[in-house]
């Protein structure tokens, strides 16, 4: 049953948010302005952030680009699939990706859109998302791409933003939606698509409490591309019509790429530190007992949050009791915590080498603190086993596809709501193991792979095979997204 069902006629006309929602946003604006000042006033980007969030000023709109060579690149990568995509002809797409995870997820699809000749304006809610966008699109910024902090959900601000950017299409990644923004898009006849959409039972319950607001947002969306059947059903229950909700493989299946020349350079340096051949390292899981050609057992704990570093270090102590030459590469999720994690390492008896200091990995290095941004792929490729964090605390888990694509066995915790279907598929294939949030459990799982080369290779290959099967997920969602341009224009 649909909650607060929208009539057929209302489905085709903008649905204005109720008065109490608009009043709440108006009352919250000065508080939000204060929060932005408090959090960002010491940052070099503060003046720009304040101007963009409240619609006072924006960077210039990127200029149109010639898409002939880029379209050829799409065809080379996706073959016959890309031939069905419409040419951008310089039209601009606004993409909203809340934070680092969302922009990473969207990146493969956004590259497809660029290669079809579309321009992009990308907005972020967080500083990490903003910085990640700048890093991912460093070569395109100011040309075919520009970015800003997302405008607040106030009608005058959103209208100024839309007048400046003039998008032909708006794309929202995963779950963050704003009622006034969707209303203004619908009012301006700009189609809005929610891609890679997911809606957990908990999130659905939250939206359902504000049934009128949620139903209006569902009506103002043009299309919802859901990751799974349960999410699709929940969007319909919130008020989305059956014809606008479709299913497609998650964009996270397409996150195996993004390897760059900078990654090559760092990987070569790491291999030199370790004294291994980079090409042989790709196949991973060497026989560590082979005295003729010994190699260190290496595991990575990636994208860690508070308390997860402590878990990793305590587990590493136990691993070292069985594998004294083992190396832990520790990759915190947020840069503001890098120094705190370094102090924690010291408190637990480790003297970490630090990427931020350009330290080398030496024979006696037991913990390498990869306190850098944008280099995670190198650490996944370097390691023999990958532990994907955000899953040992109630964050929801980060994407296991990247390590799986490098044929690495994957270990995660029990909190995986952000990537539940991916985890299920990888676990069913024998590529991923879930463990409880204790050092003993984590250490035991690590030693299963670090001490059994054949088991590790089978798990890694199973994951790689699965990622290759769904490698066209970005093209599928790009195709479904761009289809609305034919419907609306």
From TrEMBL:
<keyword id="KW-1003">Cell membrane</keyword>
<comment type="function">
    <text>Involved in lipopolysaccharide (LPS) biosynthesis. Catalyzes the transfer of 3-deoxy-D-manno-octulosonate (Kdo) residue(s) from CMP-Kdo to lipid IV(A), the tetraacyldisaccharide-1,4'-bisphosphate precursor of lipid A.</text>
</comment>
<dbReference type="GO" id="GO:0005886">
    <property type="term" value="C:plasma membrane"/>
</dbReference>
<keyword id="KW-0472">Membrane</keyword>
<dbReference type="InterPro" id="IPR038107">
    <property type="entry name" value="Glycos_transf_N_sf"/>
</dbReference>
<comment type="pathway">
    <text>Bacterial outer membrane biogenesis; LPS core biosynthesis.</text>
</comment>
<dbReference type="GO" id="GO:0030313">
    <property type="term" value="C:cell envelope"/>
</dbReference>
<keyword id="KW-0448">Lipopolysaccharide biosynthesis</keyword>
<dbReference type="Pfam" id="PF00534">
    <property type="entry name" value="Glycos_transf_1"/>
</dbReference>
<dbReference type="GO" id="GO:0009245">
    <property type="term" value="P:lipid A biosynthetic process"/>
</dbReference>
<keyword id="KW-0808">Transferase</keyword>
<feature type="active site" description="Proton acceptor">
    <location>
        <position position="102"/>
    </location>
</feature>
<dbReference type="InterPro" id="IPR039901">
    <property type="entry name" value="Kdotransferase"/>
</dbReference>
<feature type="domain" description="Glycosyl transferase family 1">
    <location>
        <begin position="357"/>
        <end position="464"/>
    </location>
</feature>
<dbReference type="Pfam" id="PF04413">
    <property type="entry name" value="Glycos_transf_N"/>
</dbReference>
<comment type="similarity">
    <text>Belongs to the glycosyltransferase group 1 family. Glycosyltransferase 30 subfamily.</text>
</comment>
<feature type="domain" description="3-deoxy-D-manno-octulosonic-acid transferase N-terminal">
    <location>
        <begin position="77"/>
        <end position="254"/>
    </location>
</feature>
<dbReference type="GO" id="GO:0043842">
    <property type="term" value="F:Kdo transferase activity"/>
</dbReference>
<dbReference type="InterPro" id="IPR001296">
    <property type="entry name" value="Glyco_trans_1"/>
</dbReference>
<feature type="site" description="Transition state stabilizer">
    <location>
        <position position="252"/>
    </location>
</feature>
<protein>
    <recommendedName>
        <fullName>3-deoxy-D-manno-octulosonic acid transferase</fullName>
        <ecNumber>2.4.99.12</ecNumber>
    </recommendedName>
</protein>
<dbReference type="InterPro" id="IPR007507">
    <property type="entry name" value="Glycos_transf_N"/>
</dbReference>
<feature type="site" description="Transition state stabilizer">
    <location>
        <position position="174"/>
    </location>
</feature>
<keyword id="KW-0997">Cell inner membrane</keyword>
<dbReference type="GO" id="GO:0009244">
    <property type="term" value="P:lipopolysaccharide core region biosynthetic process"/>
</dbReference>
């Amino acid at each position: 049953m649909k909650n607060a069902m929208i009539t057929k006629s209302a489905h085709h006309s903008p649905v204005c948010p109720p008065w109490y929602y608009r009043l709440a946003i108006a009352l919250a604006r000065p508080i939000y302005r204060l929060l932005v000042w408090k959090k960002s006033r010491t940052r070099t980007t503060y003046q720009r952030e304040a101007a963009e969030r409240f619609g006072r000023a924006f960077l210039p709109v990127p200029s149109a680009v010639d898409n002939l060579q880029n379209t050829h690149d799409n065809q080379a990568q996706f073959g016959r699939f890309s031939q069905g995509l419409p040419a951008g002809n310089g039209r601009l797409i606004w993409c909203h990706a809340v934070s680092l995870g969302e922009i990473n997820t969207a990146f493969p699809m956004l590259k497809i859109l660029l290669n079809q000749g579309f321009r992009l304006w990308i907005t972020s809610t967080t500083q990490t998302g903003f910085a990640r966008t700048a890093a991912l699109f460093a070569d395109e910024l100011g040309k075919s791409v520009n970015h800003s902090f997302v405008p607040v959900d106030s009608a005058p601000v959103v209208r100024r933003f839309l007048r400046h950017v003039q998008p032909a299409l708006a794309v929202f990644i995963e779950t963050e939606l704003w009622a006034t923004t969707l209303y203004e898009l619908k009012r301006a006849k700009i189609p809005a698509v929610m891609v890679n959409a997911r809606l957990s039972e908990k999130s659905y319950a939250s939206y359902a409490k504000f049934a009128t607001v949620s139903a209006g947002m569902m009506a103002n969306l043009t299309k919802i591309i859901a990751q799974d059947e349960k999410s699709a059903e929940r969007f319909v229950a919130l008020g989305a019509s059956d014809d606008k909700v479709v299913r497609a493989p998650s964009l996270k299946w397409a996150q195996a790429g993004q390897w760059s020349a900078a990654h090559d350079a760092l990987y070569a340096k790491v291999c030199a530190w370790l004294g291994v051949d980079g090409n042989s390292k790709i196949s991973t899981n060497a026989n560590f007992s082979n005295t003729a050609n010994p190699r260190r057992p290496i595991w990575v704990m990636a994208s860690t949050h508070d308390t997860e570093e402590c878990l990793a270090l305590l587990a590493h102590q136990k691993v070292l009791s069985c594998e004294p030459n083992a190396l832990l590469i520790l990759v915190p999720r947020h840069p503001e915590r890098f120094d705190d994690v370094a102090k924690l390492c010291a408190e637990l008896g480790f003297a970490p080498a630090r990427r931020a200091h350009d330290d080398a990995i030496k024979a006696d290095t037991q913990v390498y603190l990869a306190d850098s941004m944008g280099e995670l792929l190198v650490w996944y490729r370097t390691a023999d086993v990958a532990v994907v964090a955000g899953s040992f605390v109630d964050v929801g888990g980060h994407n296991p596809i990247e390590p799986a694509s490098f044929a690495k066995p994957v270990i995660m915790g029990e909190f995986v709501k952000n990537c539940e279907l991916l985890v299920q598929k990888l676990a069913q294939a024998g590529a991923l193991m879930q463990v409880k949030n204790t050092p003993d459990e984590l250490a035991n799982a690590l030693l299963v792979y670090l001490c059994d080369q054949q088991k590790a290779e089978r798990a890694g290959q199973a994951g790689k095979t699965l990622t290759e099967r769904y490698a066209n997920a970005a093209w599928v969602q790009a195709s479904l997204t761009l289809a609305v341009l034919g419907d609306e224009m």
